[in-house]
Write a structure and sequence with these properties.
The protein contains 14 helices and two strands, in the order αβααβααααααααααα. With 319 residues, the protein is an all-alpha fold.
């Protein structure tokens, strides 16, 4: 019976949802989505290129920014194809195995981004509290290890969660709430006991997001303690100003993420439109806004982008 259920699940077809009630406007709605996706991909690619090619940016802070750009793209790109297939009326169908792969990448890179933000908080802590040891502590080799560890820490817990899905019989509705696959969405569809996935999923979310958010909070407690001890107001302002971009990146990831989780867990009677909009905000806002925030707030990144896009003399004149 388990083998039969597994076979049925693997051959199952699920149906994605666009913007309910606005199906006739899907082609027009796809235009801003397309611009946002292209803007996010181009912005993060520019950040990666500038950090790689500009020797002045070969410092720990910018290496972590490059990791953030990679995770941003890894979180948003898997949803792009299925979203536009729905909005362009190509197909609402998605096969089960493709759905599982999409879930793996979305959730893995979502958790990885949270881990990278924790690493960036530690980077700010070392830069402000131990500036003389900054370069010697955060070496490129250590940053590479942190990036690999962040990905593995996020990917491995997803394996037991997703490995159980093929053994569930999906004998109820096959209609998903989004234009992409999320575990908390698909786990409501099987006509079987899904307690393990529900409880294990909540534990994973609590452990990973909880540990990351706690680590970020503790880092900023130490940062504020060190900033308060700085005698000059100008020095305090400069120290805190280096953290503004990171704080914004934390907020634009965690606020939509928490909102989407709350709606999925407790918002059974909420509007489907609010659920779908929150899901798109969760996946689109960080990749689009992070490059903008860091370009505006970080002079070195802004200079690197201007040197890339404009002639040297014009860049110097603008800056």
């Amino acid at each position: 019976m388990a083998t039969l259920n597994s076979s049925d699940s693997l051959s199952s077809t699920f149906y994605l949802t666009g913007i309910p009630g606005y199906e006739e406007f899907h082609h027009w709605i796809s235009i801003p989505f397309c611009l946002l996706y292209l803007g996010g991909i181009m912005g993060n690619c520019i950040i990666l290129h500038v950090v790689r090619t500009d020797p002045r940016l070969h410092e720990p802070m910018y290496y972590f920014l490059a990791l953030l750009s990679l995770t941003d793209m890894g979180m948003s790109i898997p949803t792009m194809i299925s979203l536009f297939r729905v909005l362009w009326s190509i197909s609402r169908e998605i096969q089960f195995n493709i759905c599982v792969v999409q879930m793996f990448f979305i959730h893995t890179f979502s958790f990885t981004e949270s881990s990278v933000l924790l690493a960036m908080a530690l980077d700010r802590y070392v830069a402000i509290c131990h500036p003389l040891q900054y370069v010697t502590i955060l070496t490129p080799r250590l940053i590479t290890k942190i990036g690999i560890a962040a990905f593995l820490r996020s990917a491995l817990p997803m394996i037991p969660l997703l490995a159980r899905l093929p053994f569930f019989p999906f004998c109820h509705s096959h209609i998903l709430s989004h234009s992409y696959c999320l575990h908390q969405d698909i786990i409501r569809l099987p006509c079987a006991d899904t307690k393990f996935n529900v409880i294990y999923g909540m534990i994973v979310i609590t452990m990973l997001w909880g540990m990351d958010s706690l680590g970020i909070f503790v880092s900023y407690v130490f940062i504020l303690y060190s900033v308060i001890r700085i005698s000059s107001c100008e020095g305090r302002f400069k120290a805190l100003n280096t953290c503004v971009s990171h704080i914004c990146a934390v907020l634009i990831l965690y606020v939509p993420m928490i909102g989407l989780s709350i709606i999925h867990r407790f918002g059974k009677h909420s509007s489907p439109l609010s659920l779908i909009l929150m899901g798109h905000i969760y996946l689109l806002v960080p990749p689009v806004l992070n490059p903008i925030i860091y370009s505006v707030k970080t002079k070195q990144i802004r200079q690197g982008i201007l040197h890339l896009l404009l002639p040297q003399k014009i860049s110097s004149a603008v800056i």
